[in-house]
Write a structure and sequence with these properties.
alpha/beta; 4-stranded parallel β-sheet; TIM Barrel
Length: about 350
């Protein structure tokens, strides 16, 4: 999975995306100007290949929402956790509505997936996770995460839970450093892994592992670890969906001297698709290194991640479901601002 530098496809983009090992695109804020521009961009990307490339984005809500103008401001996930303190039933209903809203607006612009929801447990340690996490209690994370996923599925979008087996227990930001979590596997199974385990049983379609070393389990980050991906995630937990690597350009992903070595390590560990972002030269290097690579099982898994519904954005806003969910999102954002001011 590659990225783009601008708001429209260039000749170089078309050449890279035509490579047989290119399987998807992740979009960032720099790729967005307006809903009409974004819709045209995704239409052009999909027209390049058949079956079409998967178009993804990190669009979780709160501070991680790549598209703003014309889109509903999705509340930070911690707001749903705060709502759960007053009752799980209304919190789950709200989470399902927010999941539907998030997915429907993206599908209306031609995207296939958002890398959401975050299933990390809020231990109060990780700044990079922070209010992206739903709650400090694994059971509540599982319940609210499941509701978000149901909403996304109802809209027609497959969900990707992240960051397996849990990024919330380390202080360091894996974009900038290589975090190490010294907890035992048993401790992780009794806490951070609970949301993943439960939602895998309910058909979670995708998972993104953390660039974190869990030193009591393996000396490699989870995304490069056969122990984590093949033995625990696939074997012990029975996960049958897509494993997306986190961005191989992150500091914590620097396990190899070259990007091609990083990609090779992630794929051998069990990833189905590797992300190479914000480094066009590295992306070209990885594509060249994967010449002839073939994983039919991974390709079959990835087919399931294509968007399964299409909406017209203007028509979407006329729907009662959208109006209800949009009003709910506004109320949750107001609630969050009031609590922040206090």
């Amino acid at each position: 999975m590659l990225d783009l530098q601008s708001t429209a496809l260039t000749v170089q983009d078309r050449e890279l995306l035509g490579h047989p090992q290119a399987g998807g695109i992740i979009l960032f804020s720099r790729n967005f100007e307006s809903i009409s521009q974004l819709t045209e961009l995704t239409r052009n990307i999909h027209a390049l290949r058949d079956p079409h490339l998967i178009i993804a984005v990190d669009h979780e809500g709160g501070r991680i929402q790549r598209f703003r103008e014309g889109f509903t401001a999705i509340p930070a996930m911690a707001v749903l956790g705060q709502l759960a303190q007053r009752g799980m039933v209304p919190a789950q209903e709200a989470a399902e509505n927010i999941g539907w809203l998030l997915a429907a607006e993206l599908l209306a612009c031609g995207l296939d997936i958002s890398f959401a929801p975050v299933l990390d447990v809020a231990h109060g340690i990780s700044g990079v996770i922070g209010d992206r996490a739903l709650h400090r209690a694994p059971d509540i994370v599982a319940q609210l995460g499941g509701a978000i996923i149901r909403g996304m599925k109802h809209a027609g979008m497959a969900a990707t839970g992240k960051h397996f087996p849990g990024h919330g227990g380390v202080k360091e930001d894996s974009h900038l450093a290589k975090p190490v979590d010294d907890r035992s596997l048993q401790d992780l199974l009794l806490a951070d892994i609970i949301p993943f385990e439960r939602l895998i049983r309910n058909g979670l379609a995708g998972i993104m592992p953390a660039h974190v070393v869990y030193s009591q389990v393996d000396d490699k980050p989870a995304g490069y670890s056969e122990i984590w991906l093949k033995q625990i995630l696939r074997g012990q937990l029975g996960f049958q969906g897509v494993i997306f690597s986190d961005d191989l350009s992150m500091q914590a992903a620097a396990c190899g001297a070259t990007y091609s070595e990083r990609a090779d390590a992630a794929l051998k560990a069990g990833c189905d698709m590797v992300l190479v972002c914000n480094n066009p030269a590295a992306a070209a290097e990885v594509l060249e290194s994967l010449e002839g690579y073939n994983n039919p099982v991974a390709r079959m898994r990835l087919v399931r991640m294509h968007g399964k519904a299409h909406y017209d954005f203007a028509e979407l806003k006329k729907q009662r479901d959208w109006q209800h969910a949009q009003q709910l999102a506004c109320q949750l954002n107001e609630q969050a601002n009031l609590e922040l001011n206090v």
